[in-house]
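Please, structure for the following, as tokens.
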Amino acid sequence: MWVADNWNDYEVIDASRGEKIERWGEYRLVRPDPQVIWDTPRDSEIWRKKNGHYHRSKKGGGEWEFFNLPKEWQISYSLPIGEKLTFNLKPFSFKHTGLFPEQAVNWDWMSELIIKGKYNNSEKPIKVLNLFAYTGGATLACAAAGAHVTHVDASKGMVNWAKENAVSSNLKDAPIRWLVDDCVKFVEREIRRGNHYDAIIMDPPSYGRGPKGEVWKIEQSVYPLIQKCATLLTDKPLFFLINSYTTGLQPAVLTYMLSTVLYDYNGDAISSEIGLPVTSNGLVLPCGASGRFIGDYS
């Protein structure tokens, strides 16, 4: 498992009975987690010293209950390349805060690859395409490493949030193209334009709808999208990253998809679960899976 264990401003303090308690900077949130099916004692006082609690409804969805929690605050993350990212957090619907901290393990990996790729080929900037880019964690990690990034998400609100994170991370003037667009249609247009990228990041939802009601189901839609994205890669790609939070897509499936589509390129595909350490018991909480293709030229 690839574990995001380099955080200072974030931790999973404990997990039990379908919930986890996390520290986000100086604030503690209790949120549901479907992976936490064990029933261990909640002896620690920390469970009662919470600033927010997301209560899941039996009818679906849920709602937040707050205790002295500001509407917005910040946490930071230090990349291994010496750059620091700062994120603006605010709890919103569907239990989210605007950040998936387990993805830090991929931020570390891609930022180091970009630095290495720049060193090996200093003649041109490394171009990265980030699809389903959310609030921009991966975008900022790549930009901090010196890449030119195209950030695409169908939600205008998420793109604006990502721009705020860029400002907070001192990356306001970084070469980032911010686009509110349907990811699949954007890729199709890029193919027609003849554009190419050295690296592609894909963080698709399990289920969603496009701006005109287009249905996205990851099991049906992700492989054709990977095939289309492969045509956007340069002859010597740096990497291709795909994340999955769907239990039906095991790490081996991600490896097979990448290796069967990218077989013409020199490189290797590897996948693993990603997770976060739990402070109270030393366990690692599974948080989905990532598939990585690493070009031999990286």
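The radius of gyration is 19 Å. The chain has six helices and 17 strands.
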